[in-house]
Amino acid sequence: MDERRQTGRRGPERGERRGAGRGAPERGREDRGRGGPASPERPARDDRDIRRPPRVPEPPLPEDADAGGLDRSLRSELRTLSKENAEGVGGHLVMVGRALDAEDFDLALAHAEAAARRAGRVAGVREALGVVHYRRGEWAKALAELRTARRLSGSQHLLPLLADVERGLGRPERALELAATPEAAQLGPAELVELAIVVAGARGDLGQHSAAVLHLAEPARRSTAKQPWAARLRYAYAAALEADGQDEQAQEWYARAAEVDALGETDAAELLGRGDDTWVVDLGDDEDDDAAPDGTEEVRDS
């Protein structure tokens, strides 16, 4: 992976406490001393059987699940572990990324949980588990894991994802509050774009569609084909325009999103009725000589 709790369980009843309670068999007088032998009905327990919970089976790791393919910063975090454990955790994280790419969310969860059992104090591991819960739509679990990862790392890069989780929990106002915190100013360009997309989504959740359009207009118009987030940003802008009833402009921006979506991150081409193999768009506005004053290419309205 190169980047990027419900309880509901009752505790034991009073009569279920170990070694006591109303349901326990009567013990003879000779058994009541601390050092007395165990009664025939209650054999002496072997403490070795309760010393630790049974190990949860881990999903197998293929030979090519090499931690060397992980992001450099994540590999650095794993150096706090023993060599053997780091290799195992790294292998599970590689498999998390592969499973997410294949949208096999059950397998991704199995590997993420295995990594977390081995290295629960490593921020990147908790982040991976949080991302899996996020992709599964398990918002409360995602929030808990991502908050833990943020606390362990001290980094703010998870702020956009945390804000989007708040949307998933039906709290768009909380998402907007997170976006307005001083920590948001510490984000890099990629994270700021992701946060802008989340903010626009939160505005849409609240029925503030014109505000969503306004929030994305400038970054979308300044986006360039070379920016890895361009397709997602343009798509989000198109969706905001569509929700605001600006259908003609929305179609234009879906086309602009499809033009730069080489990885198929969006379904812009499908929305426009074109298959991936036949989609050809040439808007003629992604040349280097049309760069904006700050060095980024400006996308002009046609």
UniProtKB/TrEMBL annotation:
InterPro entries for the chain: TPR-like_helical_dom_sf
Gene3D superfamilies associated with the record: Tetratricopeptide repeat domain (1.25.40.10)
Domain of life: Bacteria
Composition-biased stretches (Acidic residues): 283-296
Coiled coil residues, start to end: none
Annotated region described as Disordered, given as residue ranges: 1-71, 279-302
Feature: compositional bias, Basic and acidic residues: 1-34, 42-52
Protein name according to UniProt: TPR-repeat-containing protein
Taxonomic source organism: Serinicoccus hydrothermalis
